[in-house]
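In full, the data:

***
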Amino acid sequence: MNGHFSAKRIAALGVLLAAASITFLIESLVPPLIAFAPYVRIGLANCFVLFVIVCFGAGDAFFFVIAKNLLTALFAGWFTLWLNLAGSLCAYALMAGLYAALFPKAGLFSVSIAGAIVGNIARTCVAVLWMEAPSLFVQLPVVCAFSIVAGGIVGILTILSIKHLPERLTMFE
């Protein structure tokens, strides 16, 4: 238990949280990639979430997701909190569950794609509720197709990070 709350572990999570938050904020400055669904993003900060799931465990990743969303809401605006929190928590839950249950049969690439699809579906659902516009569900096929590409990008970046970072930076057990 003592190693679980080591200074090195907390410092590493803090650095990853800062990097994920900065990545999210930079990505939020980029114009929407799908004009009719401006709430859909690639979600590059999910590289850090998946990295934390793999290297620190699902428990730490849950608190990481909550902290990332609260921190980014301070800078991006509180109006986006529910949209981002819904997508992030759904993506986290699926990625953590799939990783725990199916890894290595299902690789990080597949886990990431599944997380991206579920995260963007959750954001669409929140947008439907928020705007009271069920017609937004018509976007789901395009949103899901985009999510496959976005999840693939996040998966590849996460795999490369885990593969090429020195072991001392990826092993915190």
Q: What stands out?
A: The mean pLDDT is 90. DSSP finds seven helices and no strands in the chain. The CA atoms of residues 134 and 157 lie 34 Å apart.
